């Protein structure tokens, strides 16, 4: 095999190793990270710029996804992102689901609090209503606080 063929095989092997490293989240042993640092010149010739651009694009998408989590947590999502959308992530879906459960719980507590406006048959009813009204006030107060 001539020298050029050897370089091509080495290039393909290093590209495969880098892709495997990248696909595992870029985490590995210090030795592996050090080896890729030493091979930076090699990757610069073989498409390091493409990898850098990919990292930049991934970082931008993560920023959008994080912003989506914040909007979902504050209840400001009328048109939600769906799986496969640029701004969707499993974390976004978790926050969205949690916010929906929060809104349902708040509505239920509000409805029960309204029922408590009518006198109940016992002291226990009155105490339960007081607890519900306190919880509703706490939830409503938290909704207004935002990032404090």
Account of the 3D structure:
It contains six helices and no strands. It is mainly α. It folds into two domains: about 1-45, no CATH class; about 50-148, no CATH class. The longest helix has 26 residues, at about 50-75.
Number of domains: 2
Mean of all residue-level pLDDT scores: 75
How would the global form be characterised?
Answer: rod-shaped
The residue ranges in which pLDDT falls below 50 over 5 or more consecutive positions are: none
Count every helix, treating DSSP H or I runs of 4 or more residues as helices. 6
Query: How many runs of DSSP E, i.e. beta strands?
Result: 0
Helix and strand sequence: HHHHHH
Straight-line distance between termini: 67 Å
* Major sheet details: none
β-strand percent reads: under 5%
Instruction: Briefly note the structural class of the backbone.
Output: mainly alpha
Helix content: over 70%
User: Radius of gyration from the CA trace?
Assistant: 27 Å
Distinctive features:
mainly alpha; 148 residues; 2 domains; 75% helix; rod-shaped
Short description:
This protein is mostly helical.
Question: Secondary-structure blueprint of this entry?
Answer:
Blueprint: H1 3-23, H2 30-38, H3 40-45, H4 48-73, H5 90-115, H6 123-145
Helix pairs in contact: 4-5, 5-6
């Amino acid at each position: 095999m001539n020298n050029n063929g050897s370089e091509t095989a080495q290039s393909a092997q290093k590209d495969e190793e880098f892709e495997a490293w990248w696909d595992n989240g870029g985490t590995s042993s210090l030795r592996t990270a050090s080896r890729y640092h030493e091979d930076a010149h090699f990757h610069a010739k073989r498409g390091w710029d493409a990898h850098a651009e990919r990292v930049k694009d991934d970082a931008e998408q993560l920023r959008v996804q994080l912003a989506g989590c914040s909007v979902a947590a504050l209840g400001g999502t009328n048109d939600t992102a769906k799986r496969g959308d640029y701004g969707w992530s499993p974390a976004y879906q978790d926050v969205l689901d949690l916010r929906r459960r929060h809104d349902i719980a708040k509505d239920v507590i509000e409805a029960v609090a309204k029922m408590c406006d009518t006198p109940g048959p016992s002291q226990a009813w009155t105490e339960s209503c007081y607890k519900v009204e306190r919880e509703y006030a706490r939830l409503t107060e938290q909704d207004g606080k935002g990032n404090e």
